Amino acid sequence: MRWDIFCRVIDNFGDIGVCWRLAKQLQAEHGCQIRLWVDDLQSFQCICPEVQPQLARQVLTQGIEVWHWTDEVNALLHQAGCAQVVIEAFACDLPKLYVQQMAAAATKPVWLNLEYLSAEDWVLDCHALPSPHPQLPLQKHFFFPGFVKGTGGLLREHNLVETMTAWLQQGGKARLLNELGIEQPQRYQRLIFLFAYSHLELMPLLTAWGQASIPQLCLVPEGALANELRTLFPQLVRCRSLALGNLSLQLLPFINQQQFDQLLWCADVNFVRGEDSLVRALWAGKPFVWQLYRQAEDAHLEKLTAFWQHFVQGMPADLQQALWQFWLHWNQQEDVVSPWQQLLALLPEWQMHCLGWRNELCKQGDLAKNLVRFVEKKFILTPNFS
Ligand SMILES: Cc1cn([C@H]2C[C@H](O)[C@@H](COP(=O)(O)OP(=O)(O)O[C@H]3O[C@@H](C)[C@H](O)[C@@H](O)[C@H]3O)O2)c(=O)[nH]c1=O
């Protein structure tokens, strides 16, 4: 079956990050023929270097077609025709001509709006709801990812945990750090992966890390925070690393999504942000701190609380208290030095909780499989779906 996935890059890398992961998994594990329509190929290239931004159409190694979604997309749409399954990622608003093509199709495509991830309760009520088109013989369904049964689930490749475990056992960490140009990585006793939006109170935290009794390595991927660090430490404009007492701070160039995941697997503590890296940090089973994409009227704090309520089940009370202080202050751009010291004392418990939570979460169906099941049901129940 042919699937079209439409993706508009609003900001950052979450939109394309999720769509690219979904495309790969649907194609590799479910044999779907994928055409990925992306409006910003430059951003896509950052996380998938094989993409050539100047091409209107291209086929990537995985066999996935990538079509450039520009303002002049109509000519391409005439060539393409519509697919049997259409994913509109994050309400990105399909091209008008494409919607007309869907309405004119003898067998109407299954049209899904893939929504943003949230742990809020209302997601359960809205997942899989239909929405008839006001004028055309079409209906779209809302598909909500989520952390509990009754939602669309989370993106997780088949055998992900087994792949990660084997990779770590076979010396993946040393190989990766070597590929990334980290000198003598074995001298560091703690690896912190710091993927975050800019933060007003970063300096006190870095100073505290530099005063730790053990040597620590902090890796910062390219993006807003790396730029902020270049402003704080102008020497980082010329070179990629800096020593701050016992802390080695190193900026990374853009790395592909696979290496990004692998870094999460090898770090001792992961700082993640947005949507996609949160999910990947969950699968890594390592202690993590989540910084949410800021929303108007602090709506992101409600999302944080909703996730927290699921995440802390079964967590010892002292860890709950320390972790919440850290997560909240981190998301409010406040000083986190004292919550960090408290958390550090509970690192083994924190680690154990993340691992246990990951293992529980793995028992649920994954998003790609849930999507495929949903689509199959629609075609079986209503072959001339309209
Ligand atoms: C820095 C970097 C990122 N990545 C990938 C990993 C992830 O797939 C992706 C980052 O996505 P996220 O973790 O979701 O964080 P983000 O902040 O980039 O994306 C955000 O964008 C907003 C518009 C959304 O509303 C948010 O929900 C969120 O998704 O980029 C790499 O592959 N290599 C890199 O070097």
TrEMBL record:
The keyword Isomerase does not apply. InterPro entries: EarP. The keyword Lipoprotein does not apply. Keywords: Glycosyltransferase, Transferase. One of its GO terms (molecular function) is protein-arginine rhamnosyltransferase activity. It catalyses: dTDP-beta-L-rhamnose + L-arginyl-[protein] = N(omega)-(alpha-L-rhamnosyl)-L-arginyl-[protein] + dTDP + H(+). Protein-arginine rhamnosyltransferase that catalyzes the transfer of a single rhamnose to elongation factor P (EF-P) on 'Lys-32', a modification required for EF-P-dependent rescue of polyproline stalled ribosomes. This is Protein-arginine rhamnosyltransferase.
